[in-house]
Amino acid sequence: MRIRATVAAVSGALALSAFAVPAAQAEDAPKADSLSAFAGQAPADDVVGDTKITNVVVNGGKNIVLGTTAAKTFTVSVTATDPSGIQDAYVDLWHGTSVDEPDGLFMSNEYMNDKPATCTASSATTSTCKLTFTVDPEYDLYKNSLAGTWKVTAAAAGKDGDYIWKDAYKTHRVQRYSKLTVNASPEPVVKGKTITITGKLSRANWETSTYAGYTGQPVKLQFRKAGTSTYSTVKTLNTNSTGNLKTTVTAASDGYWRWSFAGTSTTPAVSAAGDYLDVR
Fold first, then answer.
1. Both 139 and 15 in a single domain?
2. CA–CA dist 183, 32 (Å, integer)
3. What is the tens place of the pLDDT at every residue in 99-123?
C-alpha cells in the first residue's frame, strides 16, 4: 500500500489520516512531497494517472456551526471521474498555516472506523462519494482561534489504481454558534411613551464550554408592525463590553421588536425572536 499520511496534534492527542491506493500502482508512482507547507506557496498535489476531482461539497454548502457541548454530524461529498470508474474517496478538514502541523483536524467517521466512502456511480466513469463527519466541540475545538477558514483535503482513487490527492482543494468556514435575546418594556405601553429595548449577543466559547458576550459588534434594532410580515431597521447599536444592548424608542403602534446580527467570518448571523409589544 502507498499511504498518504498527515499527523497533527488535536486536543493534545495525535490524529492520523491516510488514503491508500493499490500497491502495484504505488511502485511506479512519482515521489511527490505530499506534506508541503500551505502558507506562502501552492499546496502539494499528488497525482497518478487520469483521476480527476470535479466537485467537493461540505455540509451541503453551509457553514459548520458548533456550540459548546452538542456534537454535530455532517456529510462531505466528492465527485470524481476516472476512465476505469471511481473506487474510493477521502476527505479531511484542517486548520492552520501548514498541512504538516495543523492546529485543528476533522476526519471522517469512515476513516476512523477503517471503512471506505459510500460511492454512487452516475456513469461508468463518474461517481459521487459521501463521507460522514461527527465533530465534538469539547474535544475537537479546544480553542476559539479555530473559528474561521479551514482547508479541505480531498482525494479520489480510480479502480485502476490511479488517484489524485489535493492538500487544499477548497476552503470552508467553521463558526462559533451565536445567540441573541430581546426584551421590550414596559408592556403594555401607552402610545407616545418611551419603550426600552434590551438584549444580548453571545457566542460559544470553546475554551470554557460556555456562552460569552460578543463585544463591539453592530446589531440592528428592527420593528415589524402587527399584521405585516416584514421587519424594518430602526437603528444600529454596537454591543458593549459584555455583549449587551440597550436603547429607547417611542411607542407608536402594536408590533414586534427584535435585534438582528449580520454575522462575521467566525460567528453566524442571528436574529432574536420578535418580542410583541401592545401599544394602547
1. yes
2. 60
3. 889 999 999 999 999 999 999 999 9
